[in-house]
Design goal:
The structure holds two protein chains of two kinds. Chain A is an all-beta fold. The mean pLDDT of chain A is 92. Chain B contains no helices and eleven strands. In chain B, the strands form two sheets. In chain B, strands 2, 4, 5, 6, 9, 10 and 11 form a seven-stranded mixed sheet that branches. The termini of chain B are far apart. Classes of the chains: A mainly beta, B mainly beta.
Chain lengths: 114, 112
């Protein structure tokens, strides 16, 4: 099956620093999604990317859909303590009818030191 | 508008016991999903449903059953719990034609 390699597994940074994380796969995806999970909560969608090469921003977050459609990147600028959490990438492919298959990466645990 | 809710939030079972996890959504979404989350494993799809009365297997369906008798509810059952089913379970729902899955707050299950 399709697998996503998400890196790094964890990051410990100082408040104000920029953060970069990425997901790679041997498979092609039609859509890339980035979710954030706060401690004790369910994941919440941050950014969705629909076209190869697309660069999309949401406040201090910027994500890109790789030109090969096999990777995606998420950058967080000027990190703040509330950025703490687990960030998941997810790749989506069309699987027939009106169905889509979503594959999640294993997550990047971000810790921000005030 | 409560979104996606899950009950219970926590549960401890003994090996061999059975239980049902309830997921409810008030957004009139057609699609509903059950995932499990284990340390270092990300989210893995157990079962999903594309509409009332229909269910399908996901990536890790063994040991679980599901039912979708009403559009707003998706039940996950464990007939004979095993320690390997200790996990955090998340339900999600999605509106047809849209990509975003909305997740519930999770159920933390421990099987002793």
């Amino acid at each position: 099956g399709q697998q996503l390699n998400q890196s790094p597994q964890s990051m410990f940074i100082q408040e104000g620093e920029d953060v970069s994380m990425n997901c790679t796969s041997s498979s092609i995806f039609n859509t890339w999604l980035w979710y954030k999970q706060d401690p004790g909560e369910g994941p919440v969608l941050l950014i969705a990317l629909y076209k190869a090469g697309e660069l999309t921003s949401n406040g201090r977050l910027t994500a890109q859909f790789g030109i090969t459609r096999k990777d995606s990147f998420l950058n967080i600028s000027a990190s703040i303590p509330s950025d703490v959490g687990i960030y998941f990438c997810a790749g989506q492919v069309y699987s027939g009818g009106s169905n889509y298959k979503l594959t999640f990466g294993k997550g990047t645990l971000l810790t921000v030191n005030p | 508008n409560a979104g996606v809710t899950q009950t219970p939030k926590f549960r401890v079972l003994k090996t061999g016991q059975s239980m049902t996890l309830l997921c409810a959504q008030d957004m009139n979404h057609e699609y509903m999903y059950w995932y499990r989350q284990d340390p270092g494993m990300g989210l893995r799809l157990i079962h999903y449903s594309v509409g009332e009365g229909t269910t399908a297997k996901g990536e890790v369906p063994d040991g679980y059953n599901v039912s979708r008798l009403k559009k707003q509810n998706f039940l996950l059952g464990l007939e004979s719990a095993a320690p390997s089913q200790t996990s955090v379970y998340f339900c999600a729902s999605r509106l047809r034609g849209y990509n975003e899955q909305f997740f519930g707050p999770g159920t933390r299950l421990t099987v002793l």
